[in-house]
Amino acid sequence: MREALQSLFLLRQAPNPTALAICLGLALAASVLLLYALHRLLGPRGRRWLIALVTFVGGLFFGLEWFYPARGHPSKNFLTDWIEPVSNMLTVVGAFTVGLGIYSLSQVHGRNVRLRRPGWHNSLAFFIAMVAMFVFGLWEHYLHLREPLPKLVPWPKGIYEILFSGLFAPLQAATFSLLAFYIASAAYRAFRIRTAEAGLMMAAAFVVMLGQVPVGAWLTSAIPAASGWSFFRLEKLGEWVLAWLNTPAQRAITFGVAIGALAMSLRVWLSLERGTFFSEQS
Amino acid sequence: MGALEHANWFMTALFCTMSGVIVASVLLAQRGRAMFIRRIPGLAAIEEAVGRATEMGRPMLFSTGLWGIDIVTLQALAILSYIVRLAARQATRLIVATASSSLLPVAEESVREAYTSAGRPEAHRPEDVRFVSEEQFSYALGTIGIMARERTATNFLFGAFFAEALMLTENGRVLGALQVAGCPDPTQIPFFIATCDYVVIGDEYYAASAYLTREPTLTGSLVGQDLAKALLIGLILAGIGLATSYAGPAAPHNFLLNWLAQGR
User: Fold this and answer.
1) Does B101 reach chain A within 8 Å, measured CB to CB?
2) What is the rounded CA–CA span in Å between residue B147 and residue B157?
């Protein structure tokens, strides 16, 4: 039984493409039917119970796999082999929601175009970009081109390169580069010395920033590195502020966050959390 | 030392103890034990922030950050539910921007149910829960676009944020919105503090649903969380004591240092 299930979920060899296509089609049809049946047959209360049950079983599985004593190298217990198929299953379930995302975007931008709202041409650009990336991305994929590429690449590949490497990637990089200006303006506001705390933060930031750049080391290079005063060399002082003041504070926050996450996980696992799917109290 | 593949006995014992403390505290709270929660300014400001948008007659924006369904975003959804209820009572529009298509249906359901439980299901506009993009900077630009076009009076940012955090909040500030943010990641908190009006810091983030609803189960869990923290502080102090007392020539016989060094 176990072997049969594992052979179903763990792909150990390249499958026959036709068989794979049939299996995928059947699985998709079965999933849609199952979701439809659940949606029709279960009321809100039934759905909540189902979600609570799946959450509990899922949490129990991952929790047991982590805490149950494991032997060997790499260490394994009776559940470890199931981690990969279960994770794949979660990925597949997650993939179903991509369509919902596209639907949501199309709904918002379609309405903008239909009603000719201000900036509707941006929404039109969204549709053109989405269709172009979808068509040429798939087309390029199914060309099955291998390295090294020929000197004259097929035109669908060329268009895909223009769209991805020529437009998308530089636009992302340009947006990221804007961050430098945002950091400068936010730092200006944060470092204005209006209170004693802001003054202290400014002093600490000044030491740390100077300690990170060569000019900082040069400024205090008159202090001999071997002397008892070497602590006051800016590169050492900056390092001390980071290692002895900043790191403990960050760790303290991380400890608090970890315990908060544990409490939240327990609440979700046991369906005690308030919210749509978790609680009868909502 | 390689990454741990499974918990060791110490982690298992610590997990069980802490979970036990939290669950015991929940049970005590459910039996009626009064529990005190200190004021958390960032969470107390939510009502004021919704009120401001109502007075200005402008919508609000809620960003759930970059991640899909996980503990951080589930907490963000619990806060979202509370804000939607407030917004529904005050007839103020709230736009939700998500960066994960898997989170979208959950967020939609949360918002729909919050409007229903607030007694105003007709105020729910499905198109106000939007998927923007799964790409970090596309999400940032799309969300900034919503802020600018809709002229949001209040921006809420709760969830997992990274480099896009500063872009969102700097633009929100330039556009004159009141901003309340919360994020459990210590590396992003400074950016929020520099640009937002109110910030929920560290474990305050996970205290949100208890603080906002004051339900016994959640309050008990929050108090249990603090007790677990006290336990951890005790362990740290004991570790410091043990490591210090066995330092020097006796160090090779220090079981604690040996255990930590071997990473067992």
Assistant:
1) yes
2) 12
Question: CA–CA distance from B46 to each of B52, B62, B182, B208 (Å)?
Answer: 10, 12, 11, 11
**Beta-carbon separation of A266 and B23 below 8 A:** yes
pLDDT tens readout for residues B113-151: 899 988 999 999 988 999 999 999 999 999 999 999 999
pLDDT at B261: 63
pTM: 0.85
- Listed in order, strand segments (DSSP E) in chain B are 60-65, 94-98, 129-131, 154-160, 178-183, 198-201
Determine the Cα–Cα distance for residues B125 and B118; give it in Å rounded to an integer. Answer: 14
Gap between the Cα atoms of B199 and B195, Å rounded = 9
Residue whose tokens read 């993939």: A95
pLDDT at B221 over 80: yes
> What's chain A's length in residues?
282
Q: Does B130 touch chain A (CB under 8 A)?
A: yes
Per CB-CB distance under 8 Å, the chain B contacts of A262 are 15, 18-19, 22, 225, 228
Q: In chain B, which residue's Cα lies nearest the Cα of A275? A: B78
